[in-house]
Amino acid sequence: MPISSINPATGEVLKxxxxxxxxxxxxxxxxAAGTFREHRRTSFAERAGRMLQAAxxxxxxxxTFARTMTLEMGKPINAAIQEAEKCAxxxxxxxxxxxKHLADExxxxxxxxxxxxxxxxxxxLAVMPWNFPFWQVFRFAAPALMAGNTGLLKHASNVPQCxxxxxxIFSRAGFPEGAFQTLLIGxxxxxxxxxxxxxxxxxxxxxxxxxxxVASIAGQQIKKTVLELGGSDPFIVMPSSNFExxxxxxxxxxxxxxxQSCIAAKRFIVHEKIYDRFESEFVAAMKRLSVxxxxxxxxxxxxxxxxxxxxxxxxxxxxxxxxxAKLLTGGQRVQFEGELSRGNFYEPTVLADIPKDTPAYRDExxxxxxxxxxxxxxxxAIQLANATTFGLGSxxxxxxxxxxxxxxxxxxxxxxxxxxxxxxxPRLPFGGVKHSGYGRELSYFGIRExxxxxxxxxxxxxxxxxxxxx
Length: 470
Ligand code: NAP
Fold this sequence. Notes:
Layout: E1 3-6, E2 13-17, H1 22-39, H2 44-60, H3 62-73, H4 77-101, E3 105-106, E4 113-120, E5 123-127, H5 135-146, E6 150-154, H6 160-172, E7 180-182, H7 190-195, E8 199-205, H8 208-220, E9 224-228, E10 233-237, H9 243-255, E11 265-271, H10 272-288, H11 307-322, E12 326-329, E13 349-352, H12 359-362, E14 369-375, H13 378-386, E15 395-397, H14 401-410, E16 417-418, E17 437-438, H15 443-447, E18 451-458, H16 462-469
NADP nicotinamide-adenine-dinucleotide phosphate is lined by residues 127-131, 136, 154-157, 186-187, 190, 205-207, 210, 213-214, 228-231, 262, 364, 366, 392, 432, 437.
């Protein structure tokens, strides 16, 4: 099946690519394995030089890359520029820190010398989503290549131009042919690649069903996986918080990337003492957002990335409202005249009084739809926050020291942000618990996921050493 790049703001087919045939795939796998044997022997300094070059390219051509992202998946252009800049930062971070993060660790034992050495693992397959089409890939590739692995990217089928642009960046940065390759294949071809003995491990960022499938195949093959899956992050607001900051951040945290972020705040859990004011100010702010052409700088929310995502979201909201939830604003497609008439636009939407067992209560809503909940205490807030199968990020707003500690201890999530919006940072580990996945990206944890943690134990045999020296 051909792989198509479609502008979600206009419905225009931008480009179509043929998927790799068997021979082409075989060549790429061979090249990845062959290049690994050389690349693993290069010094950190050599790899760092290339990674810094990749950062330079990203920065100097950020507007071009941003336009490709926006045209393929609809994120507002300024956010796309910031994404390219962030990719440059992660390249720099690992160029500067990989050697330190992977340095031998001496451990005192009964040996003359014992230590831990971190060695590259081989070819790593990365199955990636479209929502941050550059960032998701760079945060895998920068540590993987700096550790001496080679990478194969199976990107989401709706962002082939981004996938090819990334391959070109690494090639122009001086990485050898085969160090990082894009595979234009559909998800049906992933099992074959995963099962190939030349592939050592895999990482997947995407939905729960995709994660289950990749992890089970890799499990059969006894191959390491990292999974970064969905989330339904809570955003809890307590009476002692800075109210204005909480409301403003809440709007941004829900609508960033057109509402299509795994760590977007999705459930707003607000203490009853401030709930009514929060609801009215939050709804007013959501109504003020401008929906439209993502290439226009003043646009807050562009189109959803595919027509299917729009249909799914529409359905989730309809079912939730039909089950008794209150629709405070939105709930409809936005219909434009002219060029944008075939775009996947959806109104910023707010739901309240949401019954249990509805999509908005239970599932991840991947679009600009916020779910509001009223609670009477911190215990109730935490209980509701944890009443989900997901456990990616969480944000809690309070200026009470005791409450802060309770949130940090009791929220079941891979991260807790107090008085701030959940965000990734190359210096901090990123990942989830429960059905949000396992393993970590970024920081020194990320670079240690795809390495052999090798124990080295040496006993100096003095008598024999002397004899052999004579
Ligand atoms: P998706 O449908 O799971 O797709 C993600 C990637 O997996 C794509 O490359 C897709 O290829 C591939 N894929 C889909 N089904 C597969 C299967 N059965 N076997 C192997 N590969 C398969 O997810 P999405 O809709 O693009 O992304 C949205 C989801 O990703 C949300 O749940 C979001 O929360 C999550 N996400 C998580 C993180 C995180 O860091 N935790 C970050 C971003 C997004 P095709 O495109 O060819 O189908």
